[in-house]
Amino acid sequence: MDLHGMAPHSESGKLEQVVSQFLLKSLHIILDSRIPSLHPRDPTCDSRVRKSDKWFNLVLGDRPAALDNLNFWHRNLMDPMIIDIILVQQGTAISTSVGNLLSGSPGRTATETVIERWLVQFESPPRGTASQPSEGSAASYKKTYKKSIIFLRSLYLQTRLLPAYRIFKQLSSSSQPFNFDIIYKVSSFSEPFSRVEEEMMKEYRFVPIEALPGRLHVSVTYRPQLSEFNLQPLTTMPPKIISDYVGSPATDPLRYFPSSYKGDRAISFPSKVMHSPTSVPFQRPHSWTSGFHKPVVNHHLAGSPTVYRTSQMSYDSPSPPMERMQNHRRPLHQRAPFYDECQLSPPFSPSVSPSTPTYLRNSESPRQTRAISETAPVTIPSPISGRSSRYISPNFSDPSKLSLPPLSPRSTRLDNSSNESPSGMRLIKKPEASRADLGSAGQKVLKDNKDDSGRFSGLLSSSDSPRVGFSRSSSKLSFQDDIDDCDFSCPFDVDDVDPPDSRISQNVDWKRNLESTSMGRKSQDAAVGVLVHMLRTAPPLRQDSSCYSSRSLRAEVENDGVATTASGFFMPRRTSDALEELRSYREMKDLLLSKSGTRVLTREPP
Amino acid sequence: MNCEVCQLKELEVEHFEIREVLRCILHTIVFHRALGLVRPKVIDLELFDITYVQCGDGELEKKIDEKIEQFISWVEKHPNKKSQVCISFYEVKNKHPSWFTNKTERLYWEQWYINLNVSQQQKVHSGKSHPSKIVVDPGDSLEERSARRAALETSLREVLFQIIKFVNEKKDHVPPISDGVVYFPYEVTIPSSSDSAFGMDMIKRMLQTGGHPTMLS
Questions:
Q1: Which pLDDT value is given to residue A519?
Q2: Tens digits of per-residue pLDDT, A321-351?
Q3: I want to staple A215 with a disulfide (CB 3.0 to 4.6 A). Which of A151, A208, A496, A584 is the partner?
Q4: B181 CB within 8 Å of a chain A CB
Q5: ipTM of the modeled complex
Q6: Calpha distance B76→A353 (Å, rounded)
Q7: Residues of A with CB below 8 A from B177's CB?
């Protein structure tokens, strides 16, 4: 029965209108719950009721533009309306080659799978058997309308109970890109499913709606399980600055022990820790270089309409009146700004990256500090504390300042510091002198450290956080490359992070303490404090045996309440510094000998 | 006019799940019977991976929540029992008015029975339960709990499909829609506290379901 050509006010005309609007409303409901790009951003904020909303008393908001085109091709109401919901998945391998990424042709393929197929059809009885409009049919379109209202309510719910709604929610609720997309295709003809596909799908048929003289049939064939598709977010993640990481001043200011230790500075561990953060933003493609990856997604999916069109053209041809409606992922365009934003993100990297080592450093330092404090739970004299804390805070409160400055400023600063207070390095050098006394190992270390001394010291003075070491020759040599690449500090290294001023004061205090050990308890405490500091800055245990002997020496001396020379680990930069240190050691030695007598003499290191 | 009755599949729920389950079912039923202009509101359940649809009417939400709270109070007083919540749709018919009375009669044209079996719970709190509180039965293992939760989710989904099927199969009994009216008059009935009424409910249930009566603890 041809409903066309009837006067709109006649029964048939009204029924045709109801059927036509029913098709549109059904399509709107289905697309609204399947295609993220067509889904209104915030439906609650739009309170107006459109003319289209009044149909079937169901307010859905703006109709997608695709629906406006529906009337052009769906001329014959008898033609079925087939809505295919297609899952598009990216290919498997993610190319790390920049060229491939930018070219957008990495050889990836997209797989399309029809996960749902909706069929909405107005079925009229064959010609000749259709009954003439009876008296009761005057209100039949009204009954059809009322039943359609109820049906469309249930369709609205049904679309949200089927499995495809879950992945729609995934796509629409998250701003991050995924490795899949959902598109749709509306046509009046579709390629039938293969046998394999049919077996994987279930069908649900709604009860037909009476629309005299015909009926409205709605059914859906859907995949009950979508878990077989590896649907997940893309690995590229925009950078995120974590300001409240463990150990940050905001979260845990007490961890710094600001008053006493140099030792609570970050003792960064091996090179990789330090090395990687600075290089991550520029080398690892999956960190914040989302700009590299996203264009792939963008490009690929932007190209998808072409791809999908060509692929679908094959079954488009049999029915010319049919119009293919597709969407490509509009968020591609909408997200282009997002991608641009991500590309802007790398400027964060210099500030962000050091937070990682800082975090690690901080996480390291308490342990280190604790380990050391367990051996000598005595606070270090206060003159150091103020300066120490001053140098602690900038590092941890402002991640951007953690990026280690280049070499030259440090060197300059070093020179200044050395000019200001040559004796400031004395403490550093003294251990070195004692190490030289200890033997060739010390000398070797001396040599090695000389090469790196400027860098290390400069590093420390600028950042104040890592403890730069000199301690081991072999381990030091192994880190050369890393040192070249970035500023690196070894664990158990001498902590010369204090600025020259503090060093001077410290040295002076230490000297004072040495001289006045016999004066009384106060000086003894101070001496013990200095000793503790020396212990803390002692070389690692895996140093040669001289280390142990020197430690035992210190222990002995501590028992006697006299500070002794600490094992050396600071690296003199010049011979004159070394000699000066040696001189001071000799003085100390003499002093100790005078105090302790033969006992010390017998324990002198070889 | 016939009164169509729909007995929904029985659900085994824990105390803290009652609110969400009842909200989901009641709003779904009302949504299908609110044939006036409606702006649907999609709600994701917190305890289950299920989405349902409300009418987006604050007043309606409030009324239904009140009824649910009354039911929860009843359940707290009568623990470990099977219970029913009934939502009925009716038409108001005016009887011929007289001097003393102006009675209106309710003609029920549809009734939905939501059957719940609230399992025993060791409640930590007493009184009104808060939506965010979750009472944990320490006796159950994690696996048992998650298995029960999954089974309830499946059953709840089946109940929703049952509602969809029922509303599409039976449409002729639905009265005509009045202009300007969104909802048909409805009534939510919860079990009464009185013993006699409860006994009657039990008998009714037995006759309807043909099953064994629940032994009172």
A1: 56
A2: 444 444 444 444 444 444 344 433 344 434 4
A3: A208
A4: no
A5: 0.83
A6: 56
A7: 146, 149
